[in-house]
Design a protein that fits this description.
The complex is a heterodimer of chains A (120) and B (251). Chain A is mainly alpha-helical. Chain A is 48% helix and 7% strand. In chain A, helix 1 packs across helix 2. Chain B is an alpha+beta fold and 251 residues long. Chain B contains six helices and nine strands; from the N terminus they run H-H-H-H-H-E-H-E-E-E-E-E-E-E-E. Chain B has helices spanning 3-15, 21-46, 48-77, 82-97, 99-127, 148-151; strands at residues 139-145, 157-162, 167-168, 174-176, 179-185, 193-195, 200-207, 221-223, 246-250. In chain B, strands 1, 3, 4, 5 and 7 form a five-stranded antiparallel beta sheet that branches. In chain B, helix 1 (3-15) packs antiparallel against helix 2 and helix 1 (3-15) packs parallel to helix 3. Chain B starts with a helix and ends with a strand. Classes of the chains: A mainly alpha (120), B alpha+beta (251).
């Protein structure tokens, strides 16, 4: 019987991996939509380029963080057939573990008055 | 599609060559489409100059990410010669299809290698050191007949050889009033003192560089570096006569 993977095995995540996990949220998005979602949710301060994005998606699919799903019937981009991605439950656990790790570091930064309430 | 956007797409498509072929086969259309959408958005929002900068940055990012993806796949599969093995199989198939060309290649290579090897063997046979000769221990010995040998009219030794591993060239390199110089080599291990023949006085020895290793000596022992032999001498100096070590032939 195969044991379920431990989310902390993948911690710390690569920056692009964490970005994609956050951008996917609970949606099913294709590659360019992930780029747009990341830019939108960070107000344009965080971006990801296509090369990094698709390399990260291939790696995350191998690691079980995301899964490919068929394109919805309403998809009509006029371009090549797109692949859609969504987070897996394991991907959610990994994103949660990485967020906890970053929050611990952020708490340390708060205790040293490095981070102000406004930037928080 | 404008010319500038086409140039950016072309640059990005070239950069995608950094990705493994399997990755390109799966993601390339989507990657190019995403790039073109993002490039168009940059042109509309930030102008052409920023869009050109984005195209360059995205291309560099694709190169870096592509090489990272290659390394990851190599680490996952455990070997780095997947492409190399595929090339070898392709070469084997191509040679099998062009049999005449393959035969010409094999024959040409065989003849070339054989000729080179034959030349090397011939030159090696000319320049090789004979078995048993140790070049770093070559010395020359000057032997001057004395006593009855000289009284019998013997002035020099033309050839000598010794047992127990002491090899002396049968052809003297120099003979005259001072004696005969014969190169010898191959001393047995542990031999350190060369005793002169009973009726022949060793004058000196020379090493392989021509330096004298022993001065004229009347003593019964001539020290030769790292050598020892106990050559004898035929009292009559007859050709081919063997004493207890050294055999010489008078002129």
């Amino acid at each position: 019987m195969a044991t379920s993977p431990d989310p902390t095995d993948l911690i710390p995540l690569k920056h692009a991996t964490y970005q994609v996990l956050l951008a996917l949220a609970d949606d099913q998005l294709h590659g360019y939509a992930i780029m747009q979602a990341l830019t939108r949710m960070t107000g344009g301060r965080e971006t990801i380029l296509p090369g990094t994005l698709y390399a990260a998606l291939a790696r995350m699919a191998d690691e079980g963080l995301v899964e490919k799903i068929p394109a919805p019937d309403t998809e009509a981009s006029g371009g090549p057939k797109r692949r859609y991605y969504q987070r897996t439950p394991f991907g959610c656990d990994v994103a949660r573990a990485e967020s906890e790790r970053l929050r611990l570091l952020l708490d340390v930064a708060h205790s040293q008055n490095i981070v102000t309430e406004r930037s928080k | 599609m404008s010319a500038r956007q086409g140039l950016g797409t072309l640059l990005y498509s070239c950069a995608l060559r950094a990705f493994p072929s399997s990755h390109r086969a799966e993601f390339r259309p989507e990657m190019v489409e995403s790039f073109e959408h993002a490039l168009a958005a940059h042109r509309l929002e930030r102008g052409r100059l920023r869009a050109a900068g984005f195209a360059v940055a995205a291309s560099l990012d694709a190169v870096v990410a592509g090489w990272g993806e290659r390394r990851r796949r190599v680490a996952r599969t455990g070997h780095a010669f997947t492409g190399f093995g595929r090339d070898l199989r392709h070469a084997a198939r191509a040679l099998a299809q062009a049999r005449t060309f393959s035969a010409v290649c094999v024959i040409s290579l065989g003849l070339g290698l054989g000729a080179v090897f034959a030349i090397w063997m011939f030159t090696s046979s000319l320049t090789a050191i004979p078995q048993g000769i140790q070049p770093d221990r070559l010395v020359e010995i000057v032997i001057q007949p004395q006593g009855p040998l000289r009284a019998a009219g013997v002035t020099a030794v033309t050839a000598a050889r010794a047992t127990a591993g002491l090899h002396i060239s049968p052809q003297p390199r120099l003979h005259g009033q001072q004696g005969t110089i014969v190169p010898c080599a191959g001393y047995t291990r542990g031999c350190r003192v060369l005793r002169h023949p009973r009726h022949a006085t060793p004058q000196w020895t020379r090493d392989h560089r021509g330096r004298r290793r022993g001065q004229r000596s009347r003593c019964r022992h001539l020290r030769v570096p790292r050598t020892r032999a106990v050559p004898g001498w035929d009292r009559a100096g007859r050709a081919g006569a063997r004493a207890d070590g050294l055999v010489g032939t008078p002129i």
